[in-house]
């Protein structure tokens, strides 16, 4: 599986540029979701293996980073729209709604990352116990 580097920067130089960059971020998020689906399909039947959980964790972290950038950009857009158009303007409300959805997605991704880490820790612990068990068995056989 290829390793992908994400480097999206978001600046609010104008509404048109902002929309273009948000489309770029959203496109990258869709690509990462499709890569996660591919990884899930590749590891079908062994979803809780160390390799599968590590791959999933890496992709989830990339999604989290991308979503975090989106939240930061939307926070700035809400602030700038409030200053330019006022708090009650429909454009400000639209950015605020987008920000709320982006924050909710960020929280969900964080929960998923934590759950994946828990499964990964369990897999590591299982592997360690298995190795200890094999060592004990080897000692018993020698005796």
Structural commentary:
The protein has 143 residues and is mainly alpha-helical. It has three helices and no strands. α1 runs antiparallel to α2 and α2 packs antiparallel against α3 (90-142). The longest helix is centred in the C-terminal third of the chain and has 53 residues, at 90-142. The protein is elongated.
Give me the Rg, rounded.
22 Å
Largest sheet: none
Q: State the share of residues found in helices, binned by percent.
A: over 70%
Backbone shape? elongated
Task: Summarize the helices and strands and which ones pair or pack.
Blueprint: H1 15-42, H2 50-85, H3 90-142
Helix pairs in contact: 1-2, 2-3
Give short descriptive properties of this protein.
mainly alpha
Describe the structure concisely:
With 143 residues, this protein is an all-alpha fold.
